[in-house]
Amino acid sequence: MNKTRKLFLPLLLILTASLLLSGCSGRRFVPEGWPGMLVHDDTLYVAYRDHVYFLDQNGRETGRFPDERINGQTFFATPLLLDNGTMIAGSYGGSLYAFNPESGSQIGEPFSKNLSRFLATPLYDDGMLYLPDTNHYLYALDSNMNEVWATEFNEPLWSAPVAVGEVLYH
Prior knowledge:
The chain is mainly β. Helices cover 12% and strands 35% of the residues.
């Protein structure tokens, strides 16, 4: 019994030290997931990690949003093209961006919420955006991405809402 104790304490200290030191590696945490994809005209838009990539029919990159990585923002939700030609993309970092799908230039300021993760494609219906997040909220935004209302749910929202007539389902 005494020999087991002598071995247990050093092993426990080594294990604890290795766990604590592994958090100091300086590597940036990059969430992994499935890319969100949308085809419009002859372009494939792929939301994956640091950008939404614009690919031609031959798979060559023709553009991206954003031009440079935005610290803390990664993209996985399928981009959404609005009636006015603006494209939006929600980020894992809790921001919804509007951008020009041809040039990749950002339009206006993003809609942002702390602690949110936007992983599902928003619903665009009758001039309103319905944006689900993993922090239990469904946001309604006007066409300028201003919050109109928010409703809290008991669970994280991982999928896009659906509108049927005057009823919104989530």
